[in-house]
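ARCHIVE CARD
CATEGORY: sequence design from structure
SOURCE FIELD: tokenized fold
FIELD CONTENT:
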């Protein structure tokens, strides 16, 4: 498995940090040796729609196997406030780089 993968931003939930149409480069190996930290931008498999990916910010880090996530644009973001904390194994990787189209 190649460690880097590109994802396209589809919605406005991470505005102003990420805009619809932006791409992000994700390190899929980032959390092999450490847990996500508060403030990290991550790509996660959507807990409600298994064929979709979401980009969110880690809002807390607890000593559990679940991580709460939030979008930067709270007014339009579907995140842990709607579907709860996400299991660690749903996190695809850490956003390393934003790419403009």
């Amino acid at each position: 498995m190649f460690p880097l993968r590109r994802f396209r931003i589809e919605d406005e939930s991470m505005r102003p940090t990420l805009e619809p149409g932006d791409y992000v480069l994700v390190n899929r190996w980032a959390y092999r040796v450490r847990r996500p930290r508060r403030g990290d931008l991550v790509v996660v498999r959507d807990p409600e729609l298994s064929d979709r990916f979401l980009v969110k910010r880690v809002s807390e880090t607890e000593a559990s196997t679940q991580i709460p996530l939030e979008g930067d644009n709270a007014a339009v973001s579907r995140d842990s406030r709607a579907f709860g904390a996400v299991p660690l194994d749903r996190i695809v990787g850490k956003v390393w780089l934003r790419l403009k189209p």
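CARD ANNOTATION: Strands lie at 4-8, 23-27, 41-45, 53-58, 66-67, 69-70, 86-87, 91-99. The longest strand covers residues 91-99.
SHELF: design records, drawer C
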